[in-house]
Design a protein that fits this description.
Shape of chain A: globular
Largest interface: A-B, 68 and 50 residues
Helix content of chain B: 55-70%
Mean pLDDT of chain B: 85
Number of domains of chain B: 1
CATH architecture of the largest domain in chain A: Up-down Bundle
CATH class of the largest domain in chain A: Mainly Alpha
Helix content of chain A: 55-70%
Radius of gyration of chain A: 26 Å
CATH topology of the largest domain in chain A: Sodium/glucose cotransporter
CATH superfamily of the largest domain in chain A: Sodium/glucose cotransporter
Oligomer: heterodimer
Mean pLDDT of chain A: 84
Strand content of chain B: 5-15%
Distance between the termini of chain B: 32 Å
Number of helices of chain A: 23
Order of helices and strands of chain B: HEEH
Largest sheet of chain B: 2 strands, antiparallel
Radius of gyration of chain B: 19 Å
Number of helices of chain B: 2
Low-confidence stretches of chain A: none
Low-confidence stretches of chain B: none
Structural class of chain B: mainly alpha
């Protein structure tokens, strides 16, 4: 997709990035000790920390990823909102206060507080690093996606830009600046998402999303001997037809240009519907709807084909209340754009065909995660659903960059209160995601190349000013989250591994310096990963980070807090098993098979979300190893 | 070389009672959450049924889980603060 770049958008973007950097440099002058660098000195006010929790948590995955997933897959995207929020219950009721009491700077400190074990230090620092890297990938991908329409620059420059700015932020100021950046960003995100939702409801729903929305062509063809032989419109010539996964596509030629149409057979006739199509030629060049990208023949899509209000079909609704909006979509019909890829000689063709979907199917689970037998759900599909919901529920309280925020407040009471402020802000935002996602689905703003841009592009239909602010906030969202993740990662390397595990003698200043060097290295690696994973939905990627965190870290935290027989080796081995099994399953999953350029259905493990296997395995390992090493526990206690 | 907390934490006599309350509230919420997953797995068609104010079960249950977490958070904080004030008086 090619976007018009606005000067206003650039000015607002530069202003917000400048604000973030200015704040960082201001706090940099105050960051002289390791305590200030890793835990903001432990004296952040609970209300500020609570909103900063929201800032940390409402990452690119929440704003860009969930809204995009809802825009493409309806309610199934909202499952992420439900799961992400529910995870905070585990954090509040079980983890927040005890963890505050146990730790100093990092998640490893807390796990190791009872044992002083080298095994735990090593396993937990590696786990922190891996989970943070998994979480970093989607943030960087989201940053790249944002830069394309905002500044008109290529994806990789966006990734490079966010990586460089964050390295600068973290390498200068650490947790204090990260906290205040998250506070401002979290507050702005909730406020402007509310404003965007107000615009969506006030605008209502219409069969014509905008004046310049592309009118998709529809023509008919004659079927002879089971295949289409002739197009009724004589200006089109049939070149070929291709069938894949129960869908048939026809390539037609008109005025020297080639187009792909979706074929729906109806008796001895066929209806041909225009599609979006992208052809990657043998020489690597790409054609968009048969033309080079510069010809701007690739359109933003997403519309309703039927609107029903109170039993009456209408062409537009006018302003709607929040519940009426949801009910109207449920009663109407949505045109989604489903993706299929197939080879065409030496070229690779990707098409997005119109998929008319009943509103009632959009408003309940099932479009992405097949659940009913009627929809062809298999046992693996159901297992995928349970696995996702389990990982989302258990993952939040195992994310190192969230856990370290408990060390920035002065007391356990403050830790609890800040969690509740965080839950309230985050919960309210997640309710808004349903409106923003459905709004994008119905308002002709979807860029089929990246689902991540649905919410910002929706804002663009309500004015370039709103789009600029929302995009700049989204970029700041990425900056803030990546800052937090890099602080957590640098803590794992410099504090947990170099200082505590290797026991390298360092002064307090030396520790801060080691943390900053580690931050630069992690930042550079994150830039590379962000470029490699371009095009994937960021919320899906974060879902994987949750699964790894829930498998590797949560059993260790909960058993440490609630089971006296837990041993150091039990914790260390459960972390190792959690990491290995969750990442192993992900690497052999259908999604990664697709990423490798292989056929997804050939993947050795037909499961995209590993939690259902890796979490119980990690728990089992902890229990078995702990019971086997009780003698060590007793020896330690007697000493 | 154990890892002391970043900020000095005072002794909390209410810690054990708060932990028990936390576990109870966690189990209650987990049951409600599991109910949502269970319906999705075993009776997915129920998700489309009309529930309250013309909204379907999926929407009411989904919004309900989010709102319930917030309400339970406030209740938990109220009860914990009360326990702390009473038990840590002296």
């Amino acid at each position: 997709m090619i976007y018009e770049v606005s000067n206003l958008a650039i000015i607002i973007f530069l202003f917000i990035v400048g604000l973030v950097l200015g704040l960082s440099f201001y706090f940099a002058r105050k960051t002289k000790s390791a305590s200030k660098y890793y835990a903001a000195g432990g004296n952040i006010h609970w209300a500020v920390n609570g909103i900063a929790f929201a800032g940390d948590y409402l990452s690119a995955a929440s704003f860009l990823g969930i809204c995009g997933m809802i825009a493409y897959s309806g309610y199934d995207g909202f499952l992420y909102s439900i799961g992400y929020l529910a995870g905070w219950v585990v954090a509040l009721f079980l983890v927040a206060e005890p963890l505050k009491k146990l730790g100093k700077y990092t998640f490893t400190d807390a796990l190791d507080s009872r044992f002083n074990s080298k095994h735990i230090k090593l396993a937990a620092s590696i786990s922190t690093l891996i989970v943070s890297l998994f979480y970093l990938i989607p943030q960087m991908v989201g940053a790249g996606d944002l830069i394309v329409p905002l500044l008109g620059l290529p994806h990789w420059i966006g990734v490079l830009l966010v990586g460089s700015i964050v390295i600068l932020i973290v390498a200068t100021a650490g947790m204090t600046s990260t906290t205040y950046v998250q506070f401002i960003k979290g507050a702005l995100l909730v406020v402007f998402s509310t404003i965007l939702t107000f615009y969506i409801l006030n605008h209502g729903l219409s069969l014509t999303p905008s004046e310049n929305y592309h009118q998709f062509l529809r023509t008919e063809a004659v079927i002879t001997g089971g295949t289409i032989s002739r197009v009724v419109d004589p200006s089109y010539q049939i070149i070929k037809t291709i069938s894949t996964d129960n869908q048939e596509f026809a390539q037609l030629e008109k005025d020297g240009s080639l187009y792909w149409f979706h074929v729906t057979k109806q008796g001895d006739k066929a209806v041909l519907d225009e599609m979006l199509h992208m052809t990657t030629l043998a020489d690597g060049s790409i054609l968009y709807n048969g033309e080079p990208k510069s010809e701007r023949k690739f359109y933003q899509v997403g519309h309703l084909s039927k609107i029903v209000v109170d039993g009456q079909e209408v062409t537009e609704t006018g302003p709607l209340g929040p519940f009426k909006f949801l009910k109207t979509i449920e009663n109407s019909e949505v045109v989604r754009f489903s993706k299929k890829s197939f080879p065409d000689g030496e070229a690779k063709v990707t098409v997005w065909y119109q998929n008319v979907t009943k509103g009632k199917d959009v408003m309940k689970p099932g479009l992405l995660y097949k659940l009913s037998k009627a929809a062809g759900a298999t046992g693996w599909d159901r297992l995928n659903f349970i696995s996702l919901m389990l990982a989302l529920f258990l993952g939040t309280s195992a994310l190192p960059h969230i856990l370290i925020r408990y060390y920035t407040v002065p007391s356990q009471r403050a830790a609890r209160k800040s969690t509740i402020v965080g839950i309230s802000a985050i919960g309210f935002f997640y309710i808004l995601t349903l409106y923003m996602g459905l709004g994008a689905m119905a308002n002709g703003v979807l860029d089929v190349e990246s689902s991540n841009m649905s919410a910002p592009l929706l804002a663009k239909t309500f004015g370039i000013g709103l789009f600029s602010i929302i995009s700049a906030i989204a970029f700041a969202t990425v900056l803030g989250t990546v800052s937090g993740l890099i602080v957590a990662s640098s803590g794992a390397i410099a504090h947990d591994f170099i200082d505590k595990y290797l026991e390298v003698e360092m002064t307090d200043k030396g520790k801060v310096k080691a943390g900053k060097i580690a931050a630069v290295c992690v930042g550079l690696f994150a830039i590379l990963l962000g470029i490699l994973f371009k095009g994937m939905n960021v919320s899906f990627l974060v879902g994987l980070a949750f699964a790894v965190a829930a498998s590797a870290n949560l059993p260790a935290i909960l058993f440490l807090l609630f089971w006296e027989k837990t041993t150091a080796k039990g914790i260390a081995w459960s972390i190792v098993v959690g990491i290995v099994t969750s990442i192993g399953i992900i690497l052999f999953s259908p999604t990664m098979w697709d990423k490798y350029g292989l056929v997804p259905s050939d993947a050795p493990i037909p499961l995209d979300n590993p939690g259902i296997i890796s979490i119980p395995l990690s728990v089992l390992t902890l229990v078995v190893v702990s019971l086997m090493t009780q003698k060590e526990n007793l020896t330690k206690t007697n000493k | 070389m154990l890892h002391e907390p970043a900020a000095k934490i005072e002794t909390d006599k209410a810690a054990s009672k708060k932990a028990k309350l936390g576990v109870k509230m966690f189990l209650f919420y987990t049951l409600v959450y599991a109910g949502f997953v269970f319906i999705g797995l075993t009776r997915p068609e129920w998700m489309g049924l009309e529930a309250i104010g013309e909204l379907n079960v999926a929407i009411v249950y989904g919004f309900g889980l989010i709102v319930l977490a917030i309400i339970m958070g406030f209740i938990y904080n109220y009860l914990c603060t009360k326990m702390e004030d009473e038990m840590n008086k002296h």
